[in-house]
Hints:
The chain is an alpha+beta fold. It has helices at residues 15-24, 48-59, 75-87, 114-125, and strands at residues 2-10, 29-33, 38-45, 64-73. 36% of the residues lie in helices and 25% in strands. It is elongated and about 55 Å long.
Amino acid sequence: MNISSIVVKTVPKYLDEVVKSLKDCEACDYHMHDELGRIIITIEGAGVSEELEKLKIIEAIPHVVTADMQMAYSEDELDAHMEVIKGGNVVPKILNDDNVDPSNIVYNGDLKKKDDLASFTKKFDETKR
């Protein structure tokens, strides 16, 4: 189970509307907000992919300016990923090949490109353990 805190930002004039939408939304749990338009919520999911889907739902709420993950807790998933890392198969073969041109290596860890991150986490989740 993953649990992550999200800071949602909206324009103060839409604060009540966005807070109501978040409280009514089944994708998250509302916790608090301030008069500046900052709202604290949490999301839960079986894995990162499910959390990213819920984050997309929150980002799509009218008048949400940003919704950024701040803290995440994932004991079960962390344990599973540590097993993959311990197994030594987590480093792609291309990174150990001296004949590969570094400009051909694609980085998938940019958090600002959530679609790329979603496909990366899906591939990582599917890694044989």
